[in-house]
Amino acid sequence: MKKVNHYHHKKVLVLGLAKSGVAAASLLHRLGAFVTVNDYLPLSENQEAQGLLEKGITVICGGHPIELLDEGFELIVKNPGIPYHNPMIEEAVKKGIPIITEVELAYQISEADFVAITGTNGKTTTTTLVFDMLKAGGKLPLIAGNIGTVASTVAEEATVDHTIVIELSSFQLMGITSFNPKIAILTNLYDAHLDYHGTSKEYVQAKSNITRNQTNNEFLIVNADQEETMRVASHSHAKIIPFSTKRKLDFGAYLNDGAVYFNDEQVIELNEILLPGAHNLENILSAMAAAKLSGVSNEAIIHVLHSFTGVKHRLQFICEHKERKFYNDSKATNILATKNAIAAFREPIVLLAGGLDRGNEFDELIPYLKNVKAVVTFGQTAKKIEQAAIKAGIKTIQHVDNVEKAVPVAYQLSDPGDVILLSPACASWDQYKTFEVRGDIFIQAVHMLK
């Protein structure tokens, strides 16, 4: 960890806890700051706040009193989930109090370079692929952020020999000032989180912060197949490394004649890659580009792509049982994700779908259901998905109570050579606390078939 003195005796408010808030408050306390933590959950129900109180940190719980901002704070470290239209944040902005997120704090103390990944889809898979490729290549990667340990905790342990591979959300990127990754990846951009950002423009602006501080000494790996991502790249000062699944490029990562290339060098044949899905080729290309820029050999990259079957709950291969292949795509909480999952297979599919009803219809799925031979539905949206399946001409449709019951029914409807795919196209909250819980129940039910 770098020696950082500028927080000594600085009055800092950590707003919102969870893992990142606890880590930020603890770190700032060790750096000599006068730390106050403010969390909405009452102290009696707040074990994290109680732990900080025992360390001698001032804790105020049970609400966000705006008058707290009159105490002369010089900085706010905000939980990424708290939107900027929160009254406390709006008042802090009026008072001119700087606001950062914990990722910025991590960058300030880190001796290690960062490889940072953002985008609407594919962040987690790309982050995992980069980490695995760097590790296979003999580098010393550490994984942080949304799919790893809290960034500032990792940064405390990292040395100049490490590389921190981090997945970043738009929420986190809104709270940076000096954060500057050696390599940044922008996977793609679609409308998302508009309830938080308000407009598509604000969302894209937040994502583009990943390259805001980059110079010609750093790299931005960017999707060359999207106008919006290339527009972001046009404003970057970094060296632009494009990737494309649709055309051969003069340089960067691309597909050509059934193989994956970086610049003019063939790295691997497409038929050697284990991870299914056209959308995953974007993730593979961008991760490979980051690995090559980091000095990883083709052999190490090939080794990873020969064995990588996907991140848990994201088109994750579970097993093959009696010539049926089972895939867990519980993270598919929207129609676009399910479209991508279905398009990943040429084999006949028995699709398990359903979940929380957000008021939308599912007619967008119809053109993608051509190789779906049967549908098993569950949850609030079951009838809507069944209507879409009927319109698509699917004759075998069954409704069950939940995912656990869907698995044996799907098996009975399948034949050797089929894919049995959980890709719900819906959030899980009508029946399950998280998509992870839903996916774990699917996995358990698959193993029960054995």
From TrEMBL:
<dbReference type="InterPro" id="IPR013221">
    <property type="entry name" value="Mur_ligase_cen"/>
</dbReference>
<feature type="domain" description="Mur ligase central">
    <location>
        <begin position="117"/>
        <end position="291"/>
    </location>
</feature>
<keyword id="KW-0961">Cell wall biogenesis/degradation</keyword>
<dbReference type="InterPro" id="IPR036615">
    <property type="entry name" value="Mur_ligase_C_dom_sf"/>
</dbReference>
<dbReference type="Pfam" id="PF21799">
    <property type="entry name" value="MurD-like_N"/>
</dbReference>
<dbReference type="GO" id="GO:0008764">
    <property type="term" value="F:UDP-N-acetylmuramoylalanine-D-glutamate ligase activity"/>
</dbReference>
<keyword id="KW-0133">Cell shape</keyword>
<dbReference type="Pfam" id="PF08245">
    <property type="entry name" value="Mur_ligase_M"/>
</dbReference>
<feature type="domain" description="Mur ligase C-terminal">
    <location>
        <begin position="313"/>
        <end position="426"/>
    </location>
</feature>
<dbReference type="InterPro" id="IPR005762">
    <property type="entry name" value="MurD"/>
</dbReference>
<protein>
    <recommendedName>
        <fullName>UDP-N-acetylmuramoylalanine--D-glutamate ligase</fullName>
        <ecNumber>6.3.2.9</ecNumber>
    </recommendedName>
</protein>
<keyword id="KW-0132">Cell division</keyword>
<dbReference type="Pfam" id="PF02875">
    <property type="entry name" value="Mur_ligase_C"/>
</dbReference>
<dbReference type="InterPro" id="IPR004101">
    <property type="entry name" value="Mur_ligase_C"/>
</dbReference>
<feature type="binding site">
    <location>
        <begin position="119"/>
        <end position="125"/>
    </location>
    <ligand>
        <name>ATP</name>
    </ligand>
</feature>
<keyword id="KW-0573">Peptidoglycan synthesis</keyword>
<keyword id="KW-0131">Cell cycle</keyword>
<comment type="pathway">
    <text>Cell wall biogenesis; peptidoglycan biosynthesis.</text>
</comment>
<keyword id="KW-0436">Ligase</keyword>
<keyword id="KW-0963">Cytoplasm</keyword>
<dbReference type="InterPro" id="IPR036565">
    <property type="entry name" value="Mur-like_cat_sf"/>
</dbReference>
<keyword id="KW-0067">ATP-binding</keyword>
<keyword id="KW-0547">Nucleotide-binding</keyword>
<comment type="similarity">
    <text>Belongs to the MurCDEF family.</text>
</comment>
<comment type="function">
    <text>Cell wall formation. Catalyzes the addition of glutamate to the nucleotide precursor UDP-N-acetylmuramoyl-L-alanine (UMA).</text>
</comment>
